[in-house]
Amino acid sequence: MASSWCWSCLSRLRATPTPRAILPPQSITPRITTASFHSSAVQYANPTKKKGALVAVKYRQGQTLRRKKKKTTERARPPAVGERKALRKRIVLSNPNALEVEGMQDLSSETMVDARLRGSVLGLPVPMLDQLRAVQAFKPKQGWSIFRRPGTVLRRDTLEMARLFEKISGEGDAAEKGKVVKKIVTGLKGSGKTVHLLQAMAMGFVKKWVVVTVPDARELVSGDTSYSPIEGTNPPQYVQPNAVSALLMRTVEANRQVLASLKVSQKHSALPSLKASSTLEDLAKLGFQDAAVAWPVFQALWTELTATAAAPGMEKDFKPRPPMLVTVDGIAHWMKESAYRAADYSPVHAHDLVFVKHFISLLQNGQASLKNGGMVLYATSTSNNPAIYTLDIALEQLAARQAGVSPSSPDYPAPEAYSGADARILELFKPTTGKEPQFELQTLGGLTRDEARGYLEYFARSGLLREEVNETWVGEKWSLSGGGIIGELEKLGRHVRSTAQTTPVLN
Amino acid sequence: MARPTPNGLTQAFQALRLHSSTTSRPVTRCLARQTRTYATEVEGQQPSALATQEQAPAAPEIDFTNFSRRPARIVPASPSYFSGSPRFIDHVLKLESLQAKYASLPTVAAGDAPRMAWFKLAQFRDYVGEPVPMKKYKSLVKILQRLNRIQPEMVPGDVKRTLESFLRPGNPYAVQHVQRTVDENGRARAKGKRKESTAVVQLVEGEGEVIVNGKSLVEAFQRVHDRESALWALRCTQRLDKYNAWITVRGGGVTGQAEAITLAIGRALLMHEPALKPVLRKAGVITVDARRVERKKPGHVKARKMPTWVKR
Amino acid sequence: MIVRKLCVRQSRQLLALNRQAPAYTRFLSTETPIDTAVQTPPKESSTPAQNPLHEVVQASRDIAQLNPRQQWGELEKRRHTFNNLGSSVQESYDPEDLIRNPPKPSDITLEMLLAAGTHLGHSTSRWNPQNSRYIFGIREGVHIISLDVTAAYLRRAAKVVEEVAARGGIILFAGTRKGQKRAVVRAAELAKGYHIFERWIPGSLTNGQQILGHCETKVVNAMDQELPEFKADLADRPSVKPDLVVVLNPLENVVLLHECGLNNVPTIGIIDTDADPTRVTYPIPANDDTLKGTSLIAGILGRAGEAGQKRRLEMAAEGKTAYEPITARQLRLDPLTGSAPPGSDLDKAEQA
Q: How many CB pairs under 8 A join A and B?
């Protein structure tokens, strides 16, 4: 088959282009992609009309598609650092749109033990609100902001606790002054564990106790605050100076009145700058400025508060110390390894943090530590709760002991073999020995129907509920809230909506 | 054309249904010249081969001298032989002829006709021994239903017999459901289903406490709506504070479990108080929701969703 | 001229004035009025027998009290009484008649074929030129099939069917189009043949053992009585193949015709102007799109088969067959070793 190429033509075409006077300029001749055998006809033909712009184009210009660039719109200024968190953590305690509840009583030393007021809502006294804020007793997600002023239900557990407060303060008929009550508060989600702690704090303020709180146990183990090992300890212990400093600040802010009235009564060699005549408030304030001495200051403060007598030579201004209330919320976070790391990068167990250990050990040696009596309330949490198998077993053991199951019986719950149970936790939850009183497990359940009715009536009287609160309606809400779980009752009570008409019963 | 080997030729003649006596002749495609032996489907065999030696033991009993005992042909048993499913077609034709024959007989409304349990498809397939498609069996059942609608006093005997031959063994409609009642401990036990969930409820008189799978209602159902729908039977009859429920629910999701409980509680409540039936019926509590998830089909993204159309 | 119409046409006002007119128009008539006697209210007791309606009215009064069987009997009786009243209709077309009582081949007339519409072919553009010899002409763009050709071919096909039936052949009537079912079944019933009115399963002939293997067969004697003693010998036999296939719609049964061709089974088919006449052995040029036409042809062929069967049975009654009957020995032979018997007894016998 003959080639369609004439090789001589081809070489002439490519190598030596003949001068073409009559040809249009090279640039506008159509490009011949395949030269046919006789290309002259194509070459000499009139150039085909090209589409407009192509004639005038210069090198690399206008060939590409031009699109308008998207204009970057100016965004609003991003929120300042911490602004969002502040918004998130903001606690609103009052709603001016809600109705003032007529005849609502405040929490006081009389009302809190009054069984006739059971089921009613007691308002928190206004001057106490600052103290409660200082100890961070209010949590953002609680529904304080829907009522005119904060108040809590006087339920059975509250009344029992109030009586304990009276006893420990030495006011009741059966004086048990100086006793230490230790409780672990558990319960379903929304059953009011944190509010129970808040009520305890309020009662502590009413009774002029010293209130020391850890509002969120997680903050101490989540690796957010600075920590440093204590020299000479084995296994190494760690101190968290900033967290201690913050605790001192909270404590002073909340208990200023009590602390200012108490004078230093012991010698503190670690604090040379402390004057002999200074108050406990001054002592605590030492830890504010310099976080490095916060831990010794805290230790000094603790010894001062738990002192039963003054050191020799300092008896002049000694006043008996009040009982102490210690509360911790979210205890489960302290039952695992913390987010801190040791020098060899091994995780630090929460019990190796001195500050944590200090509070935890109160369960075992509370009476020994709190010599003036007091109450230790540690609550679990269900909203931010690590699943800790050993703690569950330990709480079950506690419940079994309370139910009268002896630890040697086969019914006594034990961790499964090879489950890797944490021995330190089991050790912590072992029954105490000697004079030390046992710590208890307090499981918060739901409100009774009467309490629930009082609570829902409070909603109605605050203008949040437009329905008639009667026996059947309350009973229905009580069932729907899983047996009077107070958080669920609150959801149902604040649910302003048109409920479906229930059909009347025919018979 | 090459001359074929005798073996191949035999086969070829079998296919052509020719006599083996024609093996000596070249095969021709002319139909007119072929000899056909009708009434036989035995191919390539000479009928004169009734040889003297008889080996089969049963042979002497047949009297071949008798013309009527002599076999003549092998024919299909049914005129529908070539349809591939002769028995089914014969049934259909028979029923159609019956329907045409008794078309003028008065009928009753479909609801008034006696309830008959026809063969299920699988049973019918076993009965006829043929792979009958669903659609065709449905058309047959349609005829059966029409015949069944004939005024019961006037059903002719042959129709009655024919219809009875299509009934599945055992009469499922004869079984009367035993009304279940509260047991001696005052518990009413009932089941309910919805989507993939199954709920078993034990309802006793009480104060309105509800336990779901050993947990409280709040733990089992986070949403208020689910709790409300689970207890709707009690709520709409205002019995919430009069009964305690102990519930076991398995499978499915939250909504399905809640609505399975609704149904189960409704049924259990009926055992306690049968007079509540109209109220519960109106509230939609004892109505079974039989909807299930539609299966995914090949070629679809989901049950019905088609893939996006893409140009090329 | 009709007075009534005149009134309507000429004076509407007259009608408009006279509002009772509709009641009277019923009685207006061009016929001369007959004087009738003054009507007296008939006494019911005196004239029950004279009034034919009396019985009916009486029956309808107490029909509600009867049980359903009696009610139906009453209705039937009434229907029977009144159905033959009124004008007597003659020469009417009853579509059922073609199925119930189809004509014999000897009754074929061109009028009958014309009335059945067998002459109508397809649009001329769709024709198959091989059919040109059957085509009479073109009318309104449609080919007209020559009816005398149709009649001749139909008679020939009828003869074929009759002869095959007389020789004990298996005749299969196939009409798979919608509506042909009854005609096909009826033709098969008449000719003692076989029918197929649903889809032809491809491979029923070429792969018969697989497709028809499970279908029952039987051994009959010359009088068509079943011989159950040979039932055991029927196992593992090849499936039965038809000896003649009648196709009412060959265009839609190409597979069937192809298989028949492969198996050397002769076929009869209704060939419309767009069909290929060489696909069937015995074409019947006719319209295959009219159910009336196809029912007629199927019926005629069924009748032909009926005649053939009758003849065969008559012969059998005399102890004769027009075919070579299968022998007991052939039945006993193992069908698995092939139709040529083992040890080639047959060959020896043949040579002998």
A: 69
